[in-house]
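Regression test case RT-17, inverse folding.

Input:
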């Protein structure tokens, strides 16, 4: 094994049907230029099959699932690097049990997703989609109907967040010049972090009651599934907006549609949904005070370059026998089996 190549594979959904890369801004050159390292693409499979990664050291995973049954028997696989920060498509517990690091890319998405949230906030409160439509109507829309669609100023309003992690914190930093009040619910953040951001930590019900703009910035887990439900939506102001760029199932979508139809809240900005993609006939698409984007609002050249660079850094860290950045299941660093893998990689002869 000493002189065997370090094998990196990418899930098949990174390529178009003609074999070209879907995202050219993902620069694979640092991997391909590393001596003793090979890069290949898997055939498309969802979930990943165990036989596909049987003799592989590292897997970079895009949108397909990596389940308990995806784990190869050989024990060679050492890292699953997600292309992004969501990890609900990976069985993290099973990976940890088999000495496999799971890495995400917080540095790559922090600023792009925070900018996407602010884009939604400004578009919703400024009634951008409605005003765009009115302008296209010609004189009747431009001169007459615009008077009935006044926007909402942000100064003094309360910006709330479910979660003050990587993205939530960056959102607050970017929003600071807008003169808003900041509140958040996050049982895992520290008082020091909240103080540094100027955020008041509150309980869940207070967050829903007081937020003029409520943003979802937490991972999808068993605890956060449908956390935004009919009860919590009923607590919100009729003038409030909700924005979700995290994961669709955190919001009970049916309850949200009803809340908006009944005027319980003023509108929503959604980049993620339950059961993506939604059918074109979905009731959400009939609501003019809802802005929808296809789980891609943050997608920019800089975003994908940053995500790709973060995954490459994690893979190369494993190759050198080091702890990878973006490590999600940090407990693997205390496991003898994983530490043996790192030691073996560090001792390999590079040719």
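Golden output:
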């Amino acid at each position: 094994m000493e002189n065997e190549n370090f094998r990196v594979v990418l899930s098949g959904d990174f390529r178009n049907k003609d074999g070209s890369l879907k995202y050219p801004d993902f620069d694979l050159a640092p991997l391909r230029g590393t001596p003793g390292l090979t890069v290949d693409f898997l055939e498309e499979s969802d979930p990943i099959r165990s036989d596909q990664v049987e003799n592989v050291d590292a897997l970079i995973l895009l949108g397909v699932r990596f389940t308990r049954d995806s784990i190869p028997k050989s024990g060679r696989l050492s890292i699953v690097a997600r292309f992004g920060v969501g990890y609900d498509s990976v069985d993290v517990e099973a990976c940890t049990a088999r000495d496999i690091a799971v890495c995400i890319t917080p540095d790559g998405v922090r600023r792009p997703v925070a900018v996407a949230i602010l884009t939604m906030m400004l578009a919703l409160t400024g009634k951008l989609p409605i005003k765009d439509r009115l302008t296209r109507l010609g004189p009747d829309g431009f001169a007459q109907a615009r008077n009935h669609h006044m926007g909402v100023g942000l100064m003094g309003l309360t910006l709330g967040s479910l979660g003050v992690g990587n993205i939530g914190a960056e959102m607050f930093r970017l929003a600071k010049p807008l003169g808003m009040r900041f509140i958040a619910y996050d049982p895992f953040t520290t008082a020091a972090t909240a103080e540094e951001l100027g955020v008041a930590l509150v309980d869940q019900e207070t967050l829903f009651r007081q937020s003029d703009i409520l943003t979802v910035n937490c991972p999808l887990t068993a605890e956060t599934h449908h956390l935004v439900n009919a009860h919590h939506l009923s607590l919100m102001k009729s003038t409030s907006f909700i924005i979700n760029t995290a994961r669709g199932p955190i919001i009970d979508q049916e309850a949200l549609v009803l809340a908006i139809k009944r005027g319980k809240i003023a509108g929503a900005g959604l980049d993620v949904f339950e059961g993506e993609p939604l059918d074109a006939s979905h009731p959400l698409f009939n609501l003019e005070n809802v802005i929808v984007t296809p789980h891609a609002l943050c997608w920019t050249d800089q975003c994908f370059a940053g995500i790709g660079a973060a995954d490459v850094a994690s893979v190369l860290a494993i190759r050198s026998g080091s702890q990878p950045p973006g490590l999600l299941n940090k407990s693997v660093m205390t496991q003898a089996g994983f530490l043996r893998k790192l030691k073996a990689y560090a001792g390999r002869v590079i040719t």
